[in-house]
Inverse folding.
């Protein structure tokens, strides 16, 4: 697996890349990509780290798995490539943004503009086999991405973690709440959102209010 990520992340994560578990994970992913259709494309596996440098990251959104349909996943959680129909969770994210910060519903579901502003869009598992949700879970990715969260928590201050749904909320145990902000809500998936656990969380305006209090630039959602 060709690990090409921003130098600031490479510096933070070099020890992880050299761990035995990561070598096993890399071999697993390499074989999966050789023998099956997997997503995202190999060059996009670490896209979240390419777009949001370690020292520039301001906000962290934690997802679970990449999208497993054709041409959807682009290496950023909840994001899809330009021109791809928006998955239901992303639709609900955009609906909340429209109400929360009065921004029109966008044509593109590509969240790269968020990432370029310092929003780390991190899936816990960075790869998946086509049409098989969760197929690359428990292979080592979670160990790696937990290490990412610990590095951010330990070596940065004043980050805002957005934890949506039960899976993401468990990651709060890795975060130093004395140094960072955590906002939690239900997951934006229809199952959760339609029960009233997502809409109205106002996480996007709350995030910008916290950034402003810290003297940082707001995110253009």
């Amino acid at each position: 697996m060709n690990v090409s990520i921003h130098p600031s992340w490479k510096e933070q994560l070099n020890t992880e890349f050299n761990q035995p578990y990561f070598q096993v994970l890399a071999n697993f992913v390499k074989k999966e990509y050789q023998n099956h259709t997997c997503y995202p494309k190999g060059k996009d596996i670490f896209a979240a780290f390419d777009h949001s440098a370690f020292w520039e990251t301001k906000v962290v959104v934690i997802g679970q798995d990449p999208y497993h349909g054709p041409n959807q996943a682009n290496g950023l959680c909840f994001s899809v490539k330009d021109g791809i129909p928006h998955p239901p969770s992303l639709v609900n994210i955009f609906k909340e943004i429209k109400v929360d910060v009065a921004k029109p519903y966008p044509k593109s579901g590509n969240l790269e503009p968020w990432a370029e502003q310092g929003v780390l869009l991190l899936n816990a598992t960075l790869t998946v086999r086509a049409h098989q949700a969760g197929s690359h879970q428990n292979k080592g990715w979670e160990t790696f991405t937990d290490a990412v969260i610990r590095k951010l928590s330990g070596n940065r201050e004043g980050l805002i973690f957005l934890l949506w749904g039960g899976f993401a909320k468990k990651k709060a145990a890795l975060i130093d709440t004395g140094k960072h902000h955590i906002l939690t809500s239900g997951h934006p998936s229809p199952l959760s959102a339609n029960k009233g656990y997502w809409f109205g969380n106002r996480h996007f305006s709350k995030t910008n209010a916290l950034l402003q209090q810290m003297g940082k630039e707001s995110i253009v959602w």
Summary: The domain at 7-214 is CATH 3.40.470.10 (Uracil-DNA Glycosylase, subunit E). Residues 20-35 form the longest helix (16 residues).
